[in-house]
Amino acid sequence: MVREIKPHGPLTSQAQLAYLEDELAAFIHFGPNTFYDQEWGTGQEDPERFNPAQLDAREWVRVLKETGFKKLILVVKHHDGFVLYPTAHTDYSVKASP
């Protein structure tokens, strides 16, 4: 006699499965520390030095696609406090950059 085994505990949802099938996601941490050639910013870096005039975001996307990444997550505010968009909450943002 074969007995049906019922699942125990929560089941993985279709959304969770789809997320797992994407496999690779890239996190981009980009801020003033990039222009100081340091891995970790302290929040003391001068925002005027943040000047990504030569930035080619399409190149980032192209390289990630070519290497199999399915998602790109841009960290717009990291632990150093610098914000990649103008905000009323702090002056430590792109609004203080050239």
UniProtKB/TrEMBL annotation:
SUPFAM superfamilies: (Trans)glycosidases. Signal peptide: none annotated. Residues 46-94 form the Glycoside hydrolase family 29 N-terminal domain. It comes from the Bacteria. It holds the Pfam family Alpha_L_fucos. It is an enzyme of class 3 (hydrolase). GO terms for molecular function: alpha-L-fucosidase activity. The keyword Hydrolase applies. Belongs to the glycosyl hydrolase 29 family. This is alpha-L-fucosidase. It comes from Streptococcus oralis.
